[in-house]
Amino acid sequence: MKVIVTGSTGMVGKSVLQECLRSNEVEQVLAINRRSLNMIHPKLKEVLHADFLDLAPIKEEMAGYDACFHCMGVSAVGMKEAEYTRLTFDLTAHWADTLYELNPGMVFNYVSGAGTDSSEKGRAMWARVKGRTENMVLARGFQDAYAFRPGGILVEKGVQAANGSVSRFYALMRPLIYLLRNTRFVTTGPNIGKAMINTLLHPQEVKHLENIDIDKLASQPASV
């Protein structure tokens, strides 16, 4: 399979990218980033692009793929709803629209978060916006689509969030996350990557994947 990974300079995206590069099921990975990964791998092709709200200049590069693992996201801390909506819903909608035009038969996986509000009516701004984004992705018409809702995430050594404040928060919380590693509150970066790959091999009836669903899907055998 050929997959597109977004947000691969961040914590979740890098974990997903690493699993794709390890997987025998994935033959090619297209990473689209604003800044380079500074990584060389026979499966990896990287495209650098500055404006993710205008994909027209790189549109031709995005054709012919089986899946998009959309791991891009921003923290809502200190952000007004209009700006958070632009960088979350509007940006994801532009990606979904562009990719659906090019690859309607692909699987689109969107990284959301635990506590997201599918009703779009709750009090938490970020949860409403992410809920609206999830609903849009799932209704877009792709062959299949999933909203990944990880909570606590344990990642491999050397993997960290691109946002400094988020990285520091995870560094502080890591001991607690490690203590909860075998509970439903915590998954791992590698499991998110494995589960994303397995959405193409083992289609799921449940489209909102919480930690427990992610870990269960990640444990499925890769080959069908």
Task: Tell me what you see in this structure.
The chain is α/β, with parallel strands linked by helices and 224 residues long. The chain has a single domain (2-218), classed as NAD(P)-binding Rossmann-like Domain (Rossmann fold, 3-Layer(aba) Sandwich). It contains six helices and nine strands, in the order βαβββαβαββαβαβα. The chain has helices spanning 11-22, 81-102, 125-139, 164-179, 189-201, 211-218; strands at residues 2-6, 28-33, 44-48, 67-70, 107-111, 144-149, 152-154, 186-188, 208-210. The strands form two sheets. It has a seven-stranded parallel beta sheet, sandwiched between helices. Strand 5, helix 3 (125-139) and strand 6 (144-149) form a beta-alpha-beta unit. Helix 1 packs across helix 5, helix 2 (81-102) packs parallel to helix 3 (125-139) and helix 5 packs across helix 6 (211-218). The longest helix has 22 residues, at 81-102. The protein is globular and about 45 Å long. The mean pLDDT is 90.
